[in-house]
Design goal:
84 residues; mainly alpha; Leucine Aminopeptidase, subunit E, domain 1; two-stranded parallel ribbon; 3 helices
């Protein structure tokens, strides 16, 4: 998953995009753990921006359309961990 997200962010940069919105990849019907998906998205994003400070990509957002509050809380908790 880390490689997939990194490739996606690199592709956005190559195309000159300034923002991207990611779903909580594979957490639905594939049952990928939400906390692990969140960690992959946040860690990949942080590493991308550290390695590419002059990237056209400035914003990475995560969209959550499934079970709402629970997914949001799991992603928020992981974001707080990764951020510190």
């Amino acid at each position: 998953m880390l490689r997939t997200i990194t490739n996606l962010l690199n592709g956005c940069d190559e195309k000159g995009y300034n923002s991207v919105v990611l779903p909580p990849i594979s957490t639905g019907i594939f049952g990928f753990p939400k906390d692990l998906a969140a960690r992959c998205i946040f860690q990949s994003s942080i590493e991308f921006f550290k390695k590419n400070p002059y990237s056209s990509l400035r914003t990475v957002k995560v969209s959550m359309i499934e079970d709402g509050t629970k997914t949001y809380e799991e992603f928020y908790d992981v974001m707080q961990e990764v951020k510190s």
